[in-house]
Specification:
Elements (H helix, E strand, L loop, with lengths): L2 E6 L4 H12 L6 E8 L2 E8 L2 H10 L7 E7 L14 E2 L5 E9 L2 H10 L11 H14 L2 H9 L4 E9 L6 E6 L4 E4 L4 E4 L11 E4 L4 E6 L2 E6 L9 E3 L15 H7 L1 H9 L18 H6 L2 E6 L1 H18 L3 E5 H4 L10 E7 L5 H12 L3 E6 L5 H5 L2 E4 L12 H21 L4 H23 L2 H9 L5 E6 L3 H16 L2 E6 L16 E5 L7 H16 L3 E7 L11 E5 L7 H19 L18
Parallel strand pairs: 15-16, 15-17, 17-18, 18-19, 20-21, 20-22, 22-23, 23-24
Antiparallel strand pairs: 1-4, 1-10, 2-3, 2-4, 5-6, 6-7, 7-8, 8-12, 9-10, 9-11, 11-14, 12-13
The structure holds fructose -6-phosphate.
The site of fructose -6-phosphate has 14 residues, from α9 and α16.
Subunit structure: Homodimer.
Enzyme class: transferase
InterPro entries: GATase_2_dom, GFAT, GFAT_N, GlmS/AgaS_SIS, GlmS/FrlB_SIS, Ntn_hydrolases_N, SIS_dom, SIS_dom_sf
């Protein structure tokens, strides 16, 4: 939530910052702003709405050229999405500019104090108090980095702050508590950003800032301390993807590109984790076997799409390991006093690794003595840093707000963890594990096959663009798939969409069925658990008898559904537990196409942001 960029070097700061903001716009697009230090002063511009509005304003009224600058793209929390609330914020003398991601919880009190001392605050934001406090502290010490440390000690809440002062034209200062901030180290230049994507075209050498740290950027280097000024240990790492991974690469949207990348993302997530003998090698987890053997309960915490991955994982974990598994929305978890202890394994699933609800849930779990394993797509993000262990998904950068390839790789990672538990605890034989791994390895190709047959789904989606409601039904692992299909449609097409367990329909929701209402049904394989299959075929008949227009997603060769399907979408036959990996894909394509047909911007749906760093 909110994207931040800072730059000091010898290039045009405005160009570098604007290019960075373009890459970070997925984090929020309520407003955008920049500030540049030039000619002994500070020049800034900010505009409500998308970055394009700011760029237009800058074309009409250019800023003076400077080589130090900061920028911000906003997801509004305090104060509406107006020009006045857009970042950067300034002190009354216009010498300080600051951008912020997060929420300063004690801002009302600080604001009142500042007003008593004669400061005039011009916005409704919590951020503006920081600009004024920095100006006050700077007047005492003439050192922006020290001023930042002093101010941070007074702030409560979550914040990433980046600031410049006209009296220190070659310095950018950043501070981090709970929200992400990464440093990019170049030759004679340095960068700060919420995400490496902002500076990946300039450098792949990055430093992840730790909790409660302040960083000072100068052309010739960076220095990191804690809020008390003590030097901090920093770890420089190499970003293993390049700028092209963060480009649309010829696709109309990032979402389409990311849907298309799923076969590779799935294959990459398996890479290096299967030994030559076909057994699992997950030593990277570094959780001692004794700890895994002692686990008596698994709890998965996650939000949104990642939560749906967790719901599916529960079936696999319980089936393969016989360990009870709970799945909980991270935002609810710690408030209900969950029962956890030294033998609980908590799995925090998060694409961004920054979701505040998930972070708070994992902190709570660790306080209760649980072992926490993160499944994450972002190297070095807060959630993996604060977990006991991490299994990275290798989906590559996911830019579209709606999660697609990350979801599939989260499933793969969860399956790997489940199998590994089974391997370590001896609840699954080696040959059984190898058989599942073989099936998993084949899935990447199956996802590719699904993608090749999506034209009828796109056509169907376009034909339904005038509908108000679409329902989704599933059973067993198909139920969370139905929830995911409904979430995708809600967030992208802004339609009423709901997912139900098909068996639950008769307990109430069937009253929603009316003539020509589109209902998507995810049908379990007729092989294996055929009872489930037979039951869902009955459910399809029940809704069809009441007028529903049935859109049936069923395995190739499943002839039983044919008479009851108004539209039939075929997916490859897979083992039951792995079916979500192929069944979700048509639902992603369906939502993306329907949203596009309604004129919506699929990469940046309204009111949303990719990385949700507020609770
Ligand atoms: C929906 C979507 C969100 C995220 C959720 C968790 O398409 O993307 O529901 O899944 O905000 O985000 P992460 O995985 O970053 O913790």
């Amino acid at each position: 939530m909110c994207g931040i960029v800072g730059y000091v070097g010898s290039q045009s700061a405005l160009d570098v910052v604007l290019a960075g903001l373009r890459r970070l716009e997925y984090r929020g697009y309520d407003s955008a702003g920049v500030a540049v230090l030039a000619d002994g002063g500070l020049a800034s511009a900010r505009k409500a709405g998308k970055l394009a509005n700011l760029e237009k304003a800058l074309a009409e009224r250019p800023l003076p050229a400077g080589a130090t600058g900061i920028g911000h793209t906003r997801w509004a929390t305090h104060g509406g999405p107006t020009d006045a609330n857009a970042h950067p914020h300034h002190d009354n003398a216009g010498r300080v500019a600051v951008v912020h991601n997060g929420i300063i919880e004690n801002f009302a009190e600080l604001r009142a104090e500042l007003a008593d001392r004669g400061h005039v605050l011009a916005s409704e934001t919590d951020t503006e108090v920081v600009a004024h406090l920095l100006a006050e502290e700077f007047s005492g010490c003439a050192d922006l980095t020290e001023a930042m440390r002093l101010v941070c000690r007074r702030l409560q809440g979550a914040f990433t702050l980046v600031a410049v002062h006209a009296d220190e034209p070659d310095v950018v200062v950043g501070a981090r508590r709970n929200s992400p901030l990464v440093v990019g180290v170049g030759e004679g230049e340095a960068f700060l950003a919420s995400d490496v994507a902002a500076f990946i075209e300039h450098t792949r050498s990055a430093i992840e800032l730790g909790q409660d740290q302040v960083v000072e950027l100068r052309r010739d280097g960076v220095s990191v301390t804690d809020f008390d000024g003590r030097p901090a240990d920093v770890r420089t790492y190499h970003v293993d993807w390049d700028a092209s991974a963060a480009e649309k690469g010829g696709y109309a949207s990032f979402m389409l590109k990311e849907i298309a990348e799923q076969p590779k993302a799935v294959a990459d997530t398996l890479l290096g984790r299967i030994g030559v003998d076909g057994a699992l090698t997950l030593d990277e987890l570094r959780i001692p076997a004794a700890v895994l053997k002692a686990v008596d309960k698994v709890v998965i915490v996650a939000c949104g799409t990642a939560f749906h991955a967790g719901l599916i994982a529960k079936y696999a974990i319980e089936h393969w390991t016989r360990i009870p598994c709970e799945v909980e929305l991270a935002s609810e978890f710690r408030y209900r006093d969950p029962i956890l202890g030294g033998r609980s394994l908590v799995i925090a699933v998060s694409q961004s690794g920054e979701t505040m609800d998930t972070l708070m849930a994992l902190r709570h779990a660790r306080e209760q003595g649980a072992t926490v394993l993160a499944i994450c797509n972002t190297n070095g993000a807060t959630i993996p840093r604060e977990s006991d262990a991490v299994l990275y998904t290798h989906a590559g950068p996911e830019v579209a707000v709606a999660s697609t390839k990350a979801f599939l790789t989260q499933l793969v990672a969860c399956y790997l963890v489940a199998l590994y538990l089974g391997q370590v605890r001896g609840t699954k034989w080696g040959d059984e594990i190898r058989a599942v791994i073989r099936d998993l390895a084949a899935i990447s190709g199956e996802v590719g096959r699904v993608l090749e047959t999506m034209e009828p789904v796109r056509e169907l989606a376009r034909s339904l663009s005038g509908k108000k409601t679409v329902l989704f039904l599933g059973r067993h692992v198909g139920y969370p798939v139905a929830l995911e299909g409904a979430l995708k449609l809600k967030e992208l097409a802004y339609m009423h969409a709901e997912g139900f367990a098909a068996g639950e329909l008769k307990h109430g929701p069937i009253a929603l069925i009316e003539d020509d209402l589109p209902v998507v049904v995810v049908v379990p394989s007729p092989r294996g658990r055929s009872v489930l299959h037979d039951k869902i075929v009955s459910n399809i008949q029940e809704i069809r008898a009441r007028g529903a227009r049935t859109i049936v997603i069923a395995e190739e060769g499943d002839e039983a559904v044919v008479p009851y399907a108004d539209h039939l979408v075929r997916i490859p036959a897979t083992p039951t537990l792995l079916q979500p990996l192929v069944a979700t894909v048509p639902l992603q394509v369906f939502a993306c196409e329907l949203a596009t047909a309604r004129g919506n911007e699929v990469d940046q749906p309204r009111n949303l942001a990719k990385s949700v760093t507020v609770e």
